[in-house]
Specification:
Immunoglobulin-like, 5-stranded mixed β-sheet, 19 strands
Length: about 230
């Protein structure tokens, strides 16, 4: 039985719930029906319904954003701009822009921004913007579904450093911090994903421990129970 996680790391659980609901704070405005978009290459496209939760019409601006580690243009969406009436939804289509077979999952993001014209006391016209930023996962055709891809990560301890590698074809999503067990030392990943084939290094004051506790999320963005991964030695 591994020791309980220290109180100072409970913040990781809270931040995970926020980070993986849709990776941005949800407020009035344009609200996506799901926290993640998954585009399967077998079908070539996917759709997302976005609802205008405000009491007046707004323009929905949609755009694809590349992550820093993957700037290849693989996805287009339509329509880029649409008027959405109060309480109504607009369907946004995500279309794969490349016929080249995917060999691993790829990660992109979509920006959904609602622009509402409003009038101030002086009669001037101004626009208020509410933005959502959610992940888009592109999946190779016929890639088997893995409901716990974080179990495929390998964790290795060195001198004052931990290394995590993802040898799988899956994008693994998790909280920005992990915990070394026993002892409860908190280590920072500084981002909420590990890409296929990627290796990240984490600075540690000490690497004495047998396991690493992480706080993962499913492909569809929902937080699950923490997972204790075995830690190997170089």
């Amino acid at each position: 039985m591994h020791p309980s996680i220290p109180l100072r790391t409970l913040g990781a659980v809270a931040s995970l719930c926020l980070a993986f609901h849709n990776d941005s704070a949800i407020a009035a405005g344009m609200i996506p029906e799901t926290p993640v978009v998954v585009v399967d290459q077998q079908w070539g496209e996917a759709t997302l319904n976005v609802r205008n939760s405000d009491d007046r019409p707004a323009l929905l601006y949609s755009s694809v954003e590349n992550i820093a580690e993957d700037t290849e243009r693989l996805l287009v969406l339509t329509p880029p701009v649409a008027r959405v009436e109060p309480g109504q939804s607009q369907q946004v289509r995500f279309i794969l822009a490349s016929d080249k077979p995917l060999t691993t999952e790829r990660l992109k993001r979509v920006i959904l921004e609602g622009i509402m014209p409003r009038q101030d006391a002086g009669g001037a016209r101004i626009s208020l913007s509410v933005r959502q930023n959610i992940p888009v996962i592109l999946r190779p055709a016929n890639l088997p579904i893995d409901r716990a891809p974080w179990k495929r990560l390998t964790w290795t301890a060195g001198v004052n450093q931990l290394q995590v590698s993802n040898p799988s074809p899956y994008v693994v999503r998790l909280a920005k911090s992990v915990t070394l067990l026993p002892g409860g030392q908190t280590l920072e990943l500084n981002r909420t994903y590990i890409l296929p084939g990627e290796t990240l290094k984490l600075v540690a004051a000490s690497t004495l421990g047998s396991h690493v506790r992480l706080f993962p999320a499913t492909t569809y963005g929902f937080a699950v129970d923490s997972y204790d991964a075995p830690l190997s030695r170089r």
